[in-house]
Design brief:
250 residues; alpha+beta; Deoxyuridine 5'-Triphosphate Nucleotidohydrolase, Chain A; 2 domains; two-stranded antiparallel sheet; 29% helix; rod-shaped
Length: 250
Amino acid sequence: MNQSGAMFWSGETLIKRLPSLIEPFAAERVDCAAYTLSVGSEVYVSPNDQAVDPSTVTVRRLAPGDAFTIPPGQFAFLITEEVVAVPSDALAFISIRAKIKFRGLVNVSGFHVDPGYRGQLTFSVFNAGPTPIHLKRGQEIFLIWYASLDCETKFAKGGPTRVGMDAGLISGIAGELQSFSGLSRRIKDVDKSLSDRVHAIEKEQTYYRVIGAIVLAVVIGLTLSWFKDGLASRNPAPSQAITTPAPTPK
């Protein structure tokens, strides 16, 4: 029991206490006062507008080393490879490593683990960057810190070890999510479609103008021809009279 108040565990304390709290544990993953966790065997990435049928997208199981992509503007659920336990006299804090954050991956789930919890951790993340984020199973992207409470709490979590991804989480965001990049792409597609239609209409109008001009010229030509023929039939040309020249006086 810690009588001096809450405090974060040092690297030395992590090496001493975590072998019984994190499975599997590797001492080389202690990073200053934090421990590095890796991507586990299950992942869910929300479908975007390129999915064939968004309603069929579900949790994907990853073999060791398998890679996956989180597109821009999409959510994902990731679980840790490790099973994590928090004793009843401590509280844990979780985050994503800075080098992954700088690529646009944001942790939008809880930022702490309750006393008494035991199981794999589920991270809800959002790709706020402009490009897809590529990750793989076993990649070390999460951090966890432990802090001692001022006493052992009676309100610690209980229950069995939590393994795998909760299907209830998936149901909450199932279906297509409209990201900014997806909306931008759709707007560009609509703009291109409208431009193509306008160009097609302009071509049709040009075609009809040419045809109309030709027809008008033919009509004008025929009208003039009929007008001339009508005038000629109404006013025939006078016939030439044959005259005998007068005799010249002698």
